[in-house]
Input
Amino acid sequence: PQNDDGRGVAVYDADGTLWVDDVADDFTQWMIAEGHIPGENWPTYMRIYRDDPPMGCEYLLRFYIGLTPGDLAEHVEIWWREHAKRHWVWEVMESLYHLRDDKGYPIWICSGTPTDFLLPLLRIIGAAEIVGMDFELDRQGRISGWPHGIPCAGQGKADKLQTLLGKRRISFCAGNGSLDGPMMALAEQAWS
Output
């Protein structure tokens, strides 16, 4: 249906839904390979993520301790422009463009990936909002390695969306796994 009252939003998970790859992992491995962040804790991260995916999403933030948001933003732009090479899931992208362009739904991307890594999607696919894992900043304005606000993974995705929606509602939601279940349960229609 058309978004006649303007209160509906369409929410999409990013990794494994819009594309088949994982931005958080791919970007972090690129940052390690380029020498921008240390990589000695990569095996620890992989083990934590395997055993507890929401905690793994939080642990990934620790790789970025000490960076400023400005420095991170520069690296993110370079990565998306020169290295991202996403393998888009075209059927999902077609539904996104249909809901946005033909039905009038703003597109929100909700992911366990850090928000800062996905901000280029505002421009690339015309998303209205990016809801992800947010970095806490220390007193010097540098990334502390801890999440700020609600950690956006698993139940945290649903909790964070509920705090941001206000009087809006999730009309459609697309996700792909156990991390998306609570978020998808908020939608009038959900598919994976």
Remarks:
- The longest strand covers residues 107-114.
- The chain has a mean pLDDT of 95.
- The chain is about 40% helix and 20% strand.
